[in-house]
User: Fold this.
Amino acid sequence: MKLRPAPPNFGVRFRRMDLGRHPAVVAHAHHVVNTSLATSIGSNGTTVSTIEHLMAAIYVSGIDNLLIELDGPEVPIFDGSAAPFLDILREAGIKEQSAQRQCMIITRPILLRDGDAFVKATPAQHFQVRYTIDFPHPLVGRQTLLWSFNETSFGREIARARTFGFLKDVQKLQSHGLAQGGSLANAVVFDEYGILNKDGFRYIDECVRHKILDFMGDLALAGKPMIGCFEVHKAGHALHTAFIKKLVSLPGHHSLSTPACVPATFFPFTAPPSICGSNPTFS
Ligand SMILES: [Zn+2]
Assistant:
């Protein structure tokens, strides 16, 4: 994988260097084609998969324009977290460009539900995510985290959280020829009672932190920084991306703004106290 600078208004695009004529796919919610194990995008028969951890690092770094060249159909997994991507972006440096940034401001509540799983967004003056997971495993169980963005909070609190899975699911996937590269080097793996990784967790609630990482990577497919409060309950890539498609296609529920204070970093503010709305009316 190579990351190359791109001009203003280029967006984030993946280019398949292993295919003739080097076709590109724009990283946008409308191009999501598969969410079964990871988030995949595609157009005109060209696909790129497992984009979400890289997209999260790009998004929180405030990068709007980037060309990503790949020599295969998948973004490298590294250690299953976003930390390696965040590190190379920091190392390369980020250049401010002349075009004005636009934010997407949630103006009316929006909800998407699938059984007891849901994603909702409510208007707020800042950006926050409250994520809840519930897995019937003694080391996971129910975990809720309210996470606010500021310039360092992603790197400190979210970026190092790894993908996780359960041994019985991994074995089933591998017997079907999937997750062939999956190992303890790039995932937290649980058996029935415990964790197989001998160094244990990186964060005690690493699983919910990784779900926030995944959500940020999927939210990046809206193409703009967000101002709003997001609450996510027992969701995954399928519901995340369906929600983001709904959000970008409902112009009455958000407005675009180019506040003078939008800096070259992700969002134009620092973490506030909890501001998730109450009793909103959904549509
Ligand atoms: Zn993930």
